[in-house]
Design goal:
Layout lengths: L3 E5 L3 H14 L4 E5 L2 H6 L7 E5 H6 L1 H5 L5 E5 L12 E3 L4 H17 L20 H11 L4 H8 L3 H15 L4 H10 L9
Helix pairs in contact: 5-9, 6-8, 6-9, 7-8
């Protein structure tokens, strides 16, 4: 089954950012963007695995989204208030690496209770590692938030060697940011998400 996500938010920049993150996280997925609930319903809402919906649109059309609690993720700016307790929320006002971690947590929890035939896991399994053993160690430490000097000290290598490995990792993964390295580390099972 093809994975298709809907992002429903009147804010164009928020939609673009969420679309890019989802496409980076799950390259095989299609991400459709809607700036209103009416645009979503004019499409085929039944084809979407998840709805990433702004809190404003969620509250205006709560009956629709309450009927699909496992598919709905409410986009909030800051921490979710008491009106959203019990719902799956995603704080879009956090650093990119933290937003990626939050998305990965949602993915892990979300698919645990789903019917596997309807919602196959979005993350690849048994995918070959593109990195050497040492690059893998460096990538894991980067994902854990270590700076170059800490990595050099932990691995007993020079700072120059860490920088060289880091450049190689970025090139091999075609990574644009630390968030891309975090995604790679988690999706390839190189470190559990709760350790990052």
């Amino acid at each position: 089954m093809e994975l298709v996500f809907a992002v429903i938010d009147p804010d164009t920049l928020s939609c673009m950012g969420m679309q890019q993150l989802l496409e980076d996280l799950i390259p095989s997925a299609e991400v459709a963007v809607f700036h209103s609930f009416e645009a979503l319903t004019a499409d085929d809402p039944g084809r979407f695995v998840h709805f990433f919906v702004s809190s404003g649109i969620y509250f205006e059309h709560a009956a629709f989204f309450l009927a699909q609690p496992r598919q709905t993720i409410v986009l909030v700016r800051g921490h979710a208030g008491p009106n959203l307790s019990g719902l799956r929320t995603l704080n879009v006002c956090q650093e990119e690496k933290d937003l990626v971690k939050s998305l990965l947590h949602l993915q892990q929890r979300g698919h645990a209770g789903h019917d596997a035939s309807r919602h196959p896991s979005a993350l690849p399994h048994d995918v070959p590692n593109l990195l050497s053993a040492r690059e893998t160690e460096v990538a894991v430490l980067l994902a854990k938030g270590c700076i170059n000097k800490e990595i050099a000290d932990r691995l007993g290598i020079s700072l120059t060697t860490v920088i060289s490995h880091r450049k190689s990792i970025m090139a091999k993964l075609r990574a644009r940011s630390l968030a891309d390295i975090i995604i790679y580390v988690v999706t390839h099972g190189l470190a559990p998400l709760d350790e990052l």
